[in-house]
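Lab notebook, bench 4. The sequencing result for the construct came back, and we need a structural model before the next group meeting so we can plan mutations. Quick request posted to the team channel:

Model the 3D structure of this chain.
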Amino acid sequence: MPIEDKWKANMEKVAFMKRFPGLLNSWDSLTGKSVEAVIELKSKSGSAVVVFTDGSFIIVPPPSAEAYELGEALTAARQYLELKHPEAYAEHDRLVKKDKEAQKSARLSNILGAIRNNVDQIPELKDKLKALVKEWK
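Done. Here's the predicted structure in token form:
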């Protein structure tokens, strides 16, 4: 799988997280809501996901959470949000899996490309690879 597919899979995952059901992006949208949980995010000091009883949530400080914060927030708040957004979590899980598979494929492609690009300049590379494969058997 080409590297472009990895980036495409990641962009698709991030786009989905940014429109995840219940995600709030402004302080005005919190009016009248009851807080169910506040979970500190470890990836960025001072950030947290605030989960409301109606299944909505906000990442603070808002209004624009980074992709890594969204991913961590969805994982951290899953126990509160999944019952209210099961289809969204199923889709998120699918996209996370797709992204991981694309990342794995891109790494494999990079490794094989590096071998192909260096085999002529490093004659002993073939023998080292054969020895490595024998170690694994």
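Residues 3-136 form one domain.
Will bring this to the meeting.
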